[in-house]
């Protein structure tokens, strides 16, 4: 009778719209069970998924209420039904997902708007549980213009507080290497860690999503080309950042001991994927004058640590000169007018 009573009470509370999903009870009841799955930001999930909604959290709430805290077996049985990725019979109860179209239409006109580089992939790899706070604040942003101004930054890729703690999944360098190293045409990242720092979760969302699919048991490695720096297939359009010569000049030209790149476009072309440490430190340098003083030397042609080990390949021969520029574009080189003067003097001396 006790079990039946709990079922009746649980269903009654759902039907009467009594309370949202009890996040605290879920943690205290289920965290000790095997395969326990935590909610990323449970309060946000509970706000946007009504327990009275058949596609919300009604089933989860019912099964959570059925757990007898003095009976470990009942927790083992029912906690998986109350989890974010709920098992049957609650598997059909889908939590609300982030709405990419709604985000664009609601927030694209707001000052400081930040677009998702590949929103579908971000949603695919993070799921409703991984974007719960953003989902809640996006819903709040739709109320009016003032609400959009307030809440859109919380729903952005680089979300501000209170959603700043909700980190989107980043590309996993070690998983990529272990999953794809034996695949045909495998290409290793020159500097995977700094590639992630420079591009962020938003800039590598497609690669991260496809890596999650490829890494599944018995999955085909034919998708590995989608994950490399110069990605193929569906991720080809998500181009990773390259060194920005104009930004380097603008940011660093007034910094003590500034050194310019010569033929920076040629240097970048010769080092696609190979300037990741410089790219990251340049992005930090560009945030403030104080940071420029610290980080410009890491982004320079002859970079200081931690980028000193990032050796640059020689730039292509500059059209019309017949002379190749050095690997750093300027590093150790003589300016061209001096070089020609030197050549002319040598020729004249042997004439």
Overview of this structure, please?
The N and C termini lie far apart (113 Å). Mean pLDDT is 88; it is low at 1-18, 321-327 and 329-344. The protein is an all-alpha fold. The protein has 17 helices and no strands. Helix content is 48%, strand content 0%. The protein has helices at 2-15, 23-30, 42-48, 58-65, 72-82, 100-107, 119-130, 132-141, 145-155, 173-180, 192-203, 205-214, 245-252, 264-270, 276-285, 289-299, 336-349. It is globular. It has 4 domains: 2-82, no CATH class; 100-155, no CATH class; 174-235, no CATH class; 241-351, no CATH class.
Topology overview:
Layout: H1 2-15, H2 23-30, H3 42-48, H4 58-65, H5 72-82, H6 100-107, H7 119-130, H8 132-141, H9 145-155, H10 173-180, H11 192-203, H12 205-214, H13 245-252, H14 264-270, H15 276-285, H16 289-299, H17 336-349
Helix pairs in contact: 1-4, 3-8, 4-5, 7-12, 8-9, 11-15, 15-16
Question: Any key phrases for this structure?
Answer:
351 residues, disordered N terminus, single chain, mainly alpha
Shape: globular
Structural class: mainly alpha
| Number of beta-strand segments | 0
- Order of SSEs: HHHHHHHHHHHHHHHHH
- Tell me the Rg in angstroms: 27 Å
Taking the sheet with the most strands, its summary is: none
Strand percentage, roughly? under 5%
Q: How many helix segments?
A: 17
Q: What's the pLDDT, averaged over the residues?
A: 88
Q: State the distance separating the first and last CA atoms.
A: 113 Å
Q: Percentage of helical residues?
A: 40-55%
How many domain units? 4
Q: Unreliable stretches, pLDDT < 50, 5 or more residues? A: 1-18, 321-327, 329-344
């Amino acid at each position: 009778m006790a079990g039946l009573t709990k079922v009746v009470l649980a269903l009654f509370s759902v039907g009467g719209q009594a309370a949202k999903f009890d996040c605290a009870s879920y943690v205290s009841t289920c965290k000790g069970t095997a395969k326990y799955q935590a909610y990323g930001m449970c309060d946000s999930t509970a706000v946007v998924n009504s327990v009275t909604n058949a596609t919300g959290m009604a089933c989860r709430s019912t099964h959570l209420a059925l757990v007898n805290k003095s009976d470990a077996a009942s927790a083992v049985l029912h906690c998986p039904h109350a989890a974010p990725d709920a098992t049957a019979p609650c598997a059909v109860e889908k939590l609300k997902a982030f709405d990419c179209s709604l985000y664009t239409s609601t927030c694209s006109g707001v000052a400081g708007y930040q677009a998702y580089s590949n929103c579908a992939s971000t949603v695919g790899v993070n799921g409703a549980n991984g974007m719960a706070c953003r989902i809640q604040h996006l819903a709040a942003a739709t109320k009016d213009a003032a609400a959009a101004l307030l809440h859109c930054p919380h729903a952005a890729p680089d979300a501000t507080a209170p959603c700043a703690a909700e980190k989107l999944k980043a590309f996993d360098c070690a998983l990529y290497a272990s999953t794809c190293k034996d695949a045909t045409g495998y290409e290793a990242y020159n500097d995977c860690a700094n590639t992630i720092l420079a591009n962020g979760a938003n800039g590598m969302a497609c690669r991260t999503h496809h890596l999650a699919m490829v890494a599944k048991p018995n999955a085909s490695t034919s998708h590995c080309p989608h994950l490399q720096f110069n990605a193929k297939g569906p991720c080809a359009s998500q181009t990773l950042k390259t060194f920005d010569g104009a930004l380097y000049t603008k940011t660093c030209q007034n910094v003590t001991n500034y050194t310019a790149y010569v033929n920076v476009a040629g240097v970048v072309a010769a080092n696609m994927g190979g300037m990741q440490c410089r790219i990251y430190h340049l992005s930090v340098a560009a945030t403030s004058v104080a940071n420029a003083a610290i980080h410009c030397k890491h982004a320079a042609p002859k970079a200081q640590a931690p980028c000193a080990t990032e050796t640059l390949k020689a730039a292509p021969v500059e059209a019309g000169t017949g002379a190749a520029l050095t690997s750093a574009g300027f590093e150790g080189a003589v300016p061209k007018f001096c070089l020609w003067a030197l050549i002319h003097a040598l020729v004249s001396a042997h004439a």
